[in-house]
Design a protein that fits this description.
The protein is of the alpha+beta class. It is 43% helix and 21% strand. It is built from 16 helices and 22 strands. It has a seven-stranded antiparallel beta sheet with strand order 10-9-8-7-6-5-11. A hairpin with a 5-residue loop joins strand 3 and strand 4. It is globular.
Length: 578
């Protein structure tokens, strides 16, 4: 018994010394000391934060470490995302001054959980939870630009994660949430002037990006930058987060440009959007949001996310045609009133705003942001498009001639929105299913031995395709050791292959066909032929390396306007016997 008291007499002073001279003096502990004062804590967080700070004291660090280890195990090993929410809430009470806590909570909810549930309403519940967690984090750390940047970025990315399309269900849910008088969501998220109309995620995001930019400038002007990992003051023009992520002002400015650019496309492409509810059997109810088109007196289709779903009313009920072409009987089908109407004049206003912002970014950050020369040139062309909406086929053909070079020059900088717009125009003018494939960045893949049908519409159209000659990937055994596929030294020697592309006229326009291949990462010509008769003509070559081959088809006379400017295409690949 005496020995136990002696041990305690030694141990207790040691622990108190560790707490006072070690843990109590850490930067994190000193930063979080204010959370032990009830007056400084948000009302909804008083109990968990005050208890965690007062009773756990400096030993919070040990508990937090254990919780982070448990969180990593749930995420990476077991994928138990719902349980992660509870642990993140606990960590948030213990580390309210750690922005990564709020960012991690939001990411888990908006992506890990929302992407794993199928019900659209439940998806929105988790996305809303993520946005409100980030907002709560900005309340805890009002001067932190990282959280504001993440809030804006999440709003935008959840709407545009699939390039060329908008996440219609998310956009509709966000709009309904703002129209719900009991929600209060809009008043918590919106940071601009008061307005009664529902706002898009892009409009909601822009003020958060702008405030993050102001916070960066204010922090540097007043106290300079503090590296959160070292605690040292540094002279630099970017913000470093606790996990080492650098946020430069140009990054935030670039996101403001994108938000304006996406808002312009949203205004341009949302004409005739509606919601279809009650689709499915009597036991299953589904909801689809997209562009509604009446195909006939009793037939409709809704286009969403690059897919088309058809609805046909018959005397004995509804028939629903899925995106794959499968038909099924449906219960009641109801078309909700249109919830968003595109406004060309608003699209023009937002394209002008995006162009002005691109010019400002270019001027402010030269030569670092020279890519904004391309953004500026592209967006100025889109201003012309929105100010002069094409309605007739002749107007659409002129618009196509104006914007096609802009798309080819921009590569992938249009985020596929201009690509989808021009694809729709070309198909309306008589183009084939491959459109738009005029530029090298829009080249389309073709499988060998399959016959494809295509057209050269309108006059001057150019079609580009690519085929892939793949390298062998079977594992090779060396001295009894079998290596995994993919290791360069494990690949068998590549045997020579004959590559042949065949083209046949299917109309009255003569063709010029060119074959290109990549050598040392540069596209170089391999050969060309003319196709004048209605028989298969072939362009071929021998290759001893794997890679991509690009086929370019155009009219021999670019100004030719035939009655049927069509052709057939196929390609073959064969190993040459030695």
């Amino acid at each position: 018994m005496k020995r136990m008291w002696i041990a305690l007499a030694v141990l207790v002073p040691m622990l108190l010394g560790v707490q006072h001279f070690g843990l109590e003096r850490t930067r994190e502990k000193q930063a979080e000391d204010r959370f032990t004062r009830i007056a400084d804590v948000k009302a909804t967080r008083i109990l968990p934060q005050y208890i965690a700070s007062l009773f756990m004291g400096s030993f919070r660090a040990i508990i937090v470490d254990i919780l982070w280890v448990q969180l990593r195990r749930l995420r990476e090993e077991e994928h138990r995302f719902f349980e992660m929410v509870e642990i993140m809430d606990m960590i948030g009470s213990l580390q309210p001054r750690n922005p990564e806590v709020w960012v991690h909570q939001a990411w888990n909810a908006a992506y890990n959980i929302a992407n794993h549930v199928r019900d659209k309403d439940e998806q929105w519940t988790w996305i809303r939870y993520a946005l409100e967690k980030l907002k709560e984090g900005t309340d805890q750390m009002p001067g932190d630009p990282y959280l504001k940047f993440e809030l804006g970025r999440t709003l935008v990315h959840k709407a545009t994660w699939r390039e060329g399309f908008f996440a219609d269900a998310y956009m509709a849910s966000l709009e309904r949430e703002q129209l719900d008088p009991k929600s209060g969501f809009k008043s918590r998220i919106w940071r601009g002037e008061k307005t009664d109309r529902p706002l898009s995620p892009f409009e909601l995001a822009i003020p958060w990006f702008e405030q993050a930019l102001d916070d960066l400038a204010k922090a540097r002007k007043e106290k300079g930058w503090q590296n959160p990992m070292t605690g040292q003051m540094e002279d630099k023009d970017w913000w470093t987060t606790q996990v080492g992520l650098n946020i430069h002002p140009s990054t935030i400015d670039g996101n403001i440009y994108l938000a304006k650019y996406f808002q312009a496309w949203w205004e341009w492409t949302t004409l005739d959007r509606a919601e279809v509810i009650g689709v499915g059997s009597d036991k299953v109810t589904q909801s689809h949001v997209g562009r509604l088109v009446q195909d006939g007196g009793s037939s409709w289709s809704i286009h969403t996310g690059g897919k088309s779903i058809g609805f046909r009313k018959r005397p004995d009920g509804w028939i629903v045609t899925s995106a794959t072409g499968a038909e099924s009987r449906a219960g009641d089908v109801r078309f909700q009133k249109e919830w968003k109407r595109g406004r060309p004049e608003e699209a023009a206003r937002w394209f002008r705003a995006a162009a002005e912002h691109a010019r400002r970014v270019l001027d402010r950050y030269q030569p670092r942001m020279l890519i904004y020369k391309d953004y500026l040139a592209l967006t100025e062309k889109l201003v012309v498009m929105a100010e002069n909406p094409a309605r007739t086929l002749e107007e659409k053909e002129r618009m196509l001639a104006l914007l096609s070079p802009a798309l080819e020059a921009s590569g992938l900088k249009d985020y596929n929105y201009l690509y989808e717009e021009l694809s729709a125009i070309k198909k309306e003018l008589g183009g084939d299913a491959f459109e738009f494939n005029d530029g090298l960045e829009q080249v389309k893949p073709v499988d060998f031995e399959r016959v494809y049908s295509a057209t050269l519409v309108p006059a001057g159209d150019v079609d580009q395709y690519f085929g892939v000659v793949r390298a062998p990937d079977e594992p090779v055994s060396h001295e009894g050791h079998a290596h995994e596929p993919g290791e360069e030294h494990d690949r068998p020697a590549f045997p020579p292959h004959r590559v042949g592309f065949q083209v046949k006229k299917d109309g009255d326009v003569d063709l010029k066909v060119e074959l290109w291949t990549f050598k040392k990462r540069l596209l170089q010509p391999w050969g060309s032929i003319e196709v004048r008769g209605n028989r298969w003509e072939e362009i071929e070559g021998i290759t001893d390396t794997a890679g991509h081959f690009v086929l370019r088809v155009q009219a021999l006379d670019p100004a030719a306007r035939g009655q049927k400017p069509a052709y057939l295409l196929r390609w073959s690949l064969g190993e040459i016997a030695r």
